[in-house]
Write a structure and sequence with these properties.
single chain; alpha/beta; 8-stranded mixed beta sheet; 21% helix; globular
Length: 269
C-alpha cells in the first residue's frame, strides 16, 4: 500500500514526489505535475546501443493511466533505455511538452523542446504566476565520457512560493554539483540519481552518483531534503536502497533523507 510522509513548514506550500521506479517520479510543484525520465516498460532486456543491452529487473509501480495527466516531462536524456524505455517513449510522444537536451529533442521531435545548459522556460501555473525550469549541466560518467555516454542534462525548478528543486539526471560530477550550487543558491529539495550505475564502460567507473557522492552532493547543495532516484529496478545499479540509507544516515543526513519505495509518495516543504 502506498504511504505518505508529510513535513509541515510555513516557508512554502507543499511539494510532492512519488516514485514510479528507476529514475521515474511524479513531482508536483506550484500546481503543475512533472514527470522525470519515463520508464514504464515491464522487466526485461533493452538495447541502449548496439551491443550494450541493459536489464530491467522490475516494472513500474504505477501505470501512466494511474498517474493521470502530466504537464511536462523532464527528460535528462533519451539514448539509454534505463532513462527512456519503449513505453516511456510512448508517454513522451503523447506529452504536451518534454524538456530535454538539444540532441534528444532532435531525435524525438514532436513536443520535445531543447533546453541548453542554463537556459530557462517559464510555464504558466493554474493559480497564476509561472514555474521556471532551468537546464543545468550533467556528466554521465568520468571526465571525457561524453563521446560514449552522450549529452545529458539536469534541471532546477523554481517559482514564487515554490520549494527550489534540483533534479540531477544521470550526473557523476561533484564539480558540476558545486557549480550548480554557485549559480542557483541553496535548493530546498535535491532529487539525486544515486544508484552508482556501472557497466563495462570506463573500467566500471560509476556513471551516476554513488552513495558517498550523494553525501558530498548533499553537503555542497545544503538541500533541506534529499530524495534519491535511479537506485533500483536495473541490474547495472551497484548501490541499492540499503547502502544509500546507511551511507547517508552514517553521515548525519538521515533526517534529510526521503528514501522511497516504488509507489510511495512524500510531501515536502
Amino acid at each position: 500500500m502506498d504511504s505518505q510522509t508529510s513535513i509541515s513548514s510555513n516557508l512554502h506550500p507543499p511539494a510532492s514526489v512519488r516514485l514510479v521506479g528507476g529514475p521515474t517520479a511524479v513531482v508536483e510543484l506550484g500546481g503543475l505535475r512533472l514527470l522525470t525520465d519515463p520508464t514504464f516498460s515491464p522487466a526485461g532486456v533493452y538495447e541502449s546501443a548496439p551491443g550494450r543491452p541493459l536489464t530491467k529487473t522490475e516494472g513500474p509501480a504505477l501505470t501512466a493511466v494511474e498517474i493521470g495527466p502530466i504537464d511536462v516531462v523532464l527528460l535528462s536524456h533519451d539514448q539509454h533505455a534505463d532513462n527512456l524505455d519503449p513505453a516511456g517513449r510512448e508517454i513522451v510522444a503523447a506529452a504536451p511538452l518534454t524538456l530535454t537536451t538539444v540532441s534528444a529533442a532532435e531525435r524525438l521531435g514532436g513536443t520535445a523542446r531543447p533546453l541548453s545548459a542554463w537556459h530557462q522556460v517559464q510555464l504558466p501555473r493554474p493559480g497564476g504566476g509561472t514555474l521556471e525550469i532551468t537546464a543545468v549541466p550533467a556528466r554521465h560518467g568520468p571526465p571525457g565520457c561524453e563521446p560514449l555516454t552522450g549529452e545529458v542534462t539536469g534541471f532546477v525548478v523554481r517559482g514564487d512560493g515554490v520549494p527550489v528543486t534540483y533534479i540531477s539526471g544521470d550526473n557523476a560530477s561533484l564539480d558540476l554539483v558545486a557549480d550548480i550550487r554557485h549559480h542557483i543558491g541553496r535548493p530546498d529539495i535535491a532529487l539525486l540519481f544515486a544508484g552508482a550505475a556501472r557497466t563495462t564502460l570506463f573500467g566500471g567507473a560509476p556513471l551516476t552518483l554513488t552513495s558517498a557522492d550523494a553525501v558530498k552532493a548533499g553537503e555542497l547543495l545544503g538541500a533541506r531534503w534529499i530524495v534519491p532516484l535511479h537506485f533500483r529496478g536495473w541490474a547495472h545499479f551497484s548501490e541499492g536502497p540499503a547502502i544509500i540509507a546507511a551511507t547517508l544516515t552514517d553521515a548525519g543526513m538521515g533526517d534529510r533523507l526521503r528514501l522511497l519505495t516504488p509507489g510511495e509518495i512524500t510531501t515536502l516543504t
